[in-house]
């Protein structure tokens, strides 16, 4: 086992970025090889104290074995990694340089950030990762793993240690990659210069990439919109395509780039749950029947109740833009599978995806029934109240009216919000079914 370095919670809303700390560390470590791709591990997106992306990092160092491969470039020099490593001894030098880098670059101006650093030759069990991406990890669940680590530091509180250990615990089942390009320090905070046409062309030029550009909203999802050191990031399924894709995008000067193996776009945060099992801070896949017509709320959010031994309101928020048009076309009786995160108050499911499994029959009234005796058109007694004959006073139930089947303007299959509104962990439909 190599030396594993876990780093978490060094970014903040003011804009540093945990990946920048990791990239800097990769460049600063001497005398040890990088083993495997650096890993960017997104954790539960519904944790209330998360910063922007709730991403933690795992880097492995050691004495490399096998044929090295390029994972990045720094100031024109290739950054290499090895596929395997010899068993590692504890390294005080690595611990020292890692701590120095975190202390120097973590954004300690932000009162919320609690950077965590762990160096360990043991990988915590996979269950720690699964809990951290799907639920809230209690402190007592990480304590034993921390004791077995070579070194840990948490200068502002222990929260970051949970994410750091969870990043070490990730064993990729489904995985994607992201190449991140960084700006030289003097450019931080200034508007980024990235050629839009080149980003727009990525989907076609590199079919294994995704979440590049949002046509509907004219938005470059590859470019961060915070003052962080990242210039742009391109996500995809095939690692070797990403540096090539990066080179096709004309940009301002970049100081370095680095390829990350990530759990982004995997839906790892989702668990099948019944309505009764929905708790705050979790995400879920729920199958159920649309129980009432969707309504548009003030602010443009669209909401409908979903029934499955209990009812929960499902909400497509305004920023999901065109996705709401799909949700509005749902009708009572439709069977759907929804994916999303649970909001506590008011209890609802914030939609990340909707799959239409079966369309219910939708009918509209064409005419009132005719009286069986008088052969005349009956009169409505009001909504749901049925009909009455004006001549013989005979009554008929609401269902006696003549109905016509309405063609549905909705196809079966999965739907997702536009690129602009997608979460890091949400698996885009472009990746195909899991
Ligand atoms: Zn009659």
Mean pLDDT: 92
Label the structural class. alpha+beta
The percent of residues in helical segments reads 10-25%
Note the overall shape.
elongated
Count helical runs: 9
Main pleated-sheet profile: 6 strands, mixed, barrel
Bound molecules: zinc ion
User: Approximately how much beta-strand content do the residues carry?
Assistant: 25-35%
User: In angstroms, what separates the terminal alpha carbons?
Assistant: 30 Å
- Rg from Cα: 27 Å
Largest beta sheet: strand ordering? 2-4-3-16-6-7
Protein described:
The chain has about 425 residues and is an alpha+beta fold. The protein contains nine helices and 29 strands. The strands form six sheets. A six-stranded mixed beta barrel has the order 2-4-3-16-6-7. A five-stranded mixed barrel has the order 18-20-21-23-22. The chain is elongated. The relative contact order is 0.12.
List the topology elements.
Layout: E1 3-8, H1 18-28, E2 33-35, E3 39-42, E4 55-62, E5 64-65, E6 69-74, E7 77-82, E8 84-85, H2 92-105, E9 116-120, H3 126-134, H4 139-148, E10 151-153, H5 159-169, E11 176-182, H6 196-200, H7 202-205, E12 209-210, E13 213-214, E14 219-220, E15 230-236, H8 241-247, E16 256-262, E17 270-272, E18 283-290, E19 295-296, E20 302-307, E21 311-316, H9 323-328, E22 335-343, E23 348-358, E24 363-367, E25 379-380, E26 387-388, E27 395-396, E28 402-405, E29 413-415
Parallel strand pairs: 2-7, 3-16, 17-18, 21-23
Antiparallel strand pairs: 1-4, 1-9, 2-4, 3-4, 5-8, 6-7, 6-16, 9-10, 11-15, 11-16, 12-15, 13-14, 18-20, 18-22, 19-20, 20-21, 22-23, 23-29, 24-28, 25-26, 26-27
Helix pairs in contact: 1-2, 3-5, 4-5
The structure holds zinc ion (ZN).
Zinc ion (ZN) binds at residues 371, 373-374, 389, 391-392, 394.
């Amino acid at each position: 086992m190599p030396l594993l370095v876990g780093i978490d919670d060094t970014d903040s809303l003011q804009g540093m970025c945990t990946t920048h700390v990791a990239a800097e560390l990769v460049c600063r470590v001497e005398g040890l090889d990088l083993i495997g791709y650096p890993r960017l591990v997104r954790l539960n997106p519904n944790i209330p104290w998360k910063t922007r992306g709730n991403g933690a990092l795992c880097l492995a160092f050691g004495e490399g074995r096998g044929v090295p491969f390029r994972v990045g470039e720094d100031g024109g020099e290739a950054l290499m990694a090895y596929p395997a490593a010899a068993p590692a001894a504890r390294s005080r030098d690595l611990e020292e340089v890692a701590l120095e880098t975190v202390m120097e670059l973590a954004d300690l101006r932000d009162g919320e950030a609690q950077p965590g650093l762990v160096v360990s030759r043991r990988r915590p069990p996979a269950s720690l990762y699964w809990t951290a991406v799907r639920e809230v990890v209690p402190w007592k669940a990480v304590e034993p793993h921390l004791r077995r680590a070579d070194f840990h530091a948490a200068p502002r509180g222990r929260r970051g240690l949970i994410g750091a250990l969870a990043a070490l615990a990730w064993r990729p089942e489904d995985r994607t990659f992201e190449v991140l390009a960084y700006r030289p320090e003097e450019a931080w905070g200034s508007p980024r210069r990235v050629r839009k046409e080149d980003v727009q062309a990525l989907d076609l030029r590199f079919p294994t990439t995704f979440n590049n550009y949002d046509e509907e909203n004219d938005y470059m999802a590859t470019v961060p919109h915070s003052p962080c050191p990242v210039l742009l990031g391109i996500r995809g399924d095939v690692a070797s395509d990403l540096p090539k894709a990066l080179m096709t995008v004309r940009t301002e000067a970049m100081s370095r780039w680095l390829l990350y193996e990530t759990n982004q776009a995997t839906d790892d945060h989702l668990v099948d749950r019944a309505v009764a099992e929905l708790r705050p801070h979790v995400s879920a896949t729920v199958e159920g029947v649309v129980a009432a017509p969707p309504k548009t709320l003030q602010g443009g959010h669209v909401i409908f109740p979903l029934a499955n031994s209990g009812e929960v309101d499902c909400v497509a928020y305004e920023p999901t833009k065109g996705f709401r048009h799909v949700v509005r076309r749902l009708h009572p009786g439709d069977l759907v599978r929804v994916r999303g995160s649970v909001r506590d108050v008011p209890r609802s499911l914030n939609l990340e995806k909707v799959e239409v499994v079966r369309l219910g029959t939708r009918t509209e009234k064409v005419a009132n029934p005719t009286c069986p005796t008088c052969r005349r058109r009956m009169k409505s007694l009001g909504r749901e109240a049925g009909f009455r004959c004006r001549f013989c006073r005979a009554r008929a139930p609401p269902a006696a009216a003549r109905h016509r089947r309405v063609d549905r303007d909705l196809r079966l299959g999965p739907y997702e919000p536009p690129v602009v509104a997608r979460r890091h962990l949400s698996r885009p439909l472009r990746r195909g079914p899991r």
